[in-house]
Amino acid sequence: MTPDQYISLKQFIVDAGYASEIDWSEDIEKCDHALDFFQEAAWVICNSGMKNQVARRIHVRIINAISRKNPISSVFNHKGKVGAIEHLWKNREKLFKKFLACKSDDEILDFLETLPWIGSITKYHLAKNLGMDACKPDRHLVRIAKQFNTTPAELCRKISDAIGDRVATVDYVIWRAANLGKI
Fold first, then answer.
1. How far apart are CA 82 and CA 75, in angstroms?
2. Phi, psi (5° rounding) for residue 55?
3. What long-range pairs does 26-34 form, CB within 8 A, spacing at least 24?
4. Cα–Cα 20 to 30 A to 72, which of 84, 155, 158, 176?
5. Tens digit of pLDDT for each residue in 131-170?
6. Fold (CATH) for 34-129
């Protein structure tokens, strides 16, 4: 993918109404609160294996249920994900302290993979949402990178270096374009 192709995709994403998500990705800082840590982890768990647009509605219902002290299972019927989210909620302070104690990106990624329902791919999604400048090698990015005989990380880094957007933003733009059926 050339920088010009990326710029064209980015404009498509902006025109589709997602400029605020690009801005968020460019401006994100390292997570500094246990509640934010929990919400991002719950979001990634909801999003795992699910279309983004559906996951967003479920995530809102989960956060509302927690704020009303209702069981998560009253708004989401996925036993495994509910159990993982409940574990994160109950242990958010302790888990957040472990996150803060990580000294490097590799340590953060290793720690995140120990969380329930966070695996070898979703750890990158969560790391990005917690402020790390990384790409998530999901099925869309892997497919697209293969078209250019490279890896997702190399593709995003190359475009990031050429354009100046964060790696995480490049990842987001390419992913959203795939999510919307553009590529």
1. 10
2. -60, -35
3. 26/165, 26/166, 26/169, 28/128, 28/129, 28/131, 28/168, 29/131, 30/130, 30/131, 30/132, 31/96, 31/99, 31/129, 31/130, 31/131, 33/96, 34/92, 34/93, 34/95, 34/96
4. 176
5. 999 999 999 999 999 999 999 999 999 999 999 999 999 9
6. Endonuclease III; domain 1 (1.10.340)
